[in-house]
What we know:
Blueprint: H1 9-21, H2 24-41, H3 45-53, H4 61-86, E1 95-98, H5 102-110, E2 114-118, H6 127-133, E3 138-143, H7 148-160, E4 164-168, H8 174-183, E5 187-191, E6 200-205, E7 208-213, H9 215-223, E8 226-231, E9 234-235, E10 238-243, H10 257-277, H11 295-299
Parallel strand pairs: 1-10, 2-5, 2-8, 3-4, 3-5
Antiparallel strand pairs: 6-7, 8-10, 9-10
Amino acid sequence: xxASALYRSELWKAGLSAARKLPAPISGGLxxxxxxxxxxxxxxxxxxxxxNLLPAVNGDYVRAExxxxxxxxxxxxxxxxxxxxxxxxxxxxxxxxxxxLEVFETAKQEKRGILIxxxxxxxxxxxxxxxxxxxxxxxxxxxxxxxxRLTEMRKASRERWGIETLVIGSNPFAFIEVIRRLExxxxxxxxxxxxxxxxxxxxxxxxxxxxxxxxxxxLARATGCKIVxxxxxxxxxxxxxxxxPEIEYERAALxxxxxxxxxxxKIMRAFEPVIREHLSQWYHxxxxxxxxxxxxxxxx
Length: 300
């Protein structure tokens, strides 16, 4: 399914401009109104999101519908916060809670690479400036945006904060570059819950088959890096940055694909309770389950 027609460079520029000019309470309020309106008048996106959430609420359609309504408003607020950050406005004051950041200092001393793994939950982009402020160099792995100009705009925005971007998809040497960085003891960030089909493996999430990224397991096998799960949900008056316990594995045991699949499963299992707790901030606007086993059909 194609990305929304709203997701293009011209509108992104307009959002950046508005975020710079409007006070945060006003831009946030307008964004949430827009999110509510988009939910009410969009043809099919709400039903897709409801279907995505149903397995996590045991098929409760009414609850999934309520969470989806909240999710559209939360996503609009997330965009405003992201635009403020990408336009150069400091965001440190938004963080009310941070946990587990000492793992990055330890790995830095050991000169061991760290692979940060995170789902499309909360405002995942905000982990990068937190680390940059602590003097930790970060490489963010992303896929190409639907609009190439948007890819370059977002890349330039990260660069202003001292954050590198590696766009995969068209670059056949991207994986080699990531291995090189991890072997050099650097920190790399990767989203794990919406992979390119070529980099996916089937695991179980909320009791259903789910396509997760196998890239962390492949990189662990190649480099022996630390795998650190991180998530950044929005809370009442800002954001919280949570670092979960490191994902343990035996590098020598990762040769069989079954072992790498098991590691991908272990990563998603670590995130499952977190996603369930923050379902109205788990942003997937395209179908994530097997359409032949639609949870929406089962719920109805």
